[in-house]
Amino acid sequence: MKSFLITIVLLAVSASSAYGAGKSSVEANKQALIKAEADFEKARAEKGLEGWLSFFADDAVDLPAGLPIATGKDVMRKRLTARWDKNVVLKWQPVKVDVAESGDIGYTAGNWQIPVLDKRTNTRVLITGKYLTVWRKQKDGAWKAVADLGNQDPVPTPAASSH
User: How many C-beta neighbours within 10 Å does residue 61 have?
Assistant: First the structure.
């Protein structure tokens, strides 16, 4: 009976240790994704379209609003080249990061913003929205985006005049 209790205690301790190790691994991967997001934003700001694309897996899926699904970096590059504006200052911040216990897939969700010139009023306005990016850990340990989508928040309309 005593050896049975010792076995139970040892199993409980090893299970607890394995859970703790798994939990710390998930936390380490979450921190790696937060860093990948920051590096992604920096690469886009410094290197433009190619910096942006460098954070996508070759087989990534982009789900742009109002456009067909773009599968693969080459398709994304072709679509984005025509409309890329190097002067746009896109900023984003994850508010939710999670990683599977397996450590090979995760996601980030957050808010983005772009200051633009409103051509009607000739004033700068801030366009905002939300995004969701699914990440997959590559064989070299780097995280690459495998699916990306975003949507724009409603643009406030000017109040009607009461005259």
Answer: 18
Q: Which residue do the tokens 């910096």 mark?
A: 51
**CB of 132 within 8 A of CB of 109?**
yes
For residue 145, the enclosing domain spans 2-152
Who wins on pLDDT, 58 or 163?
58
Q: What is the pLDDT of residue 14?
A: 42
The CATH number of residue 69's host domain is 3.10.450.50
- Are 147 and 60 in contact, with CB atoms under 8 Å apart? yes
pLDDT in tens, 43-99: 999 999 999 999 999 999 999 888 899 999 999 999 999 888 888 889 999 999 999
Asked whether residue 158 is assigned to any structural domain, the reply reads no
Question: CA 5 → CA 12, 54, 88, distances in Å?
Answer: 11, 55, 65
Question: Is it the case that residue 111 has pLDDT exceeding 50?
Answer: yes
Domain count, the chain: 1
Q: HEC string of 20-48?
A: HHHHHHHHHHHHHHHHHHHHHHHHHHHHH
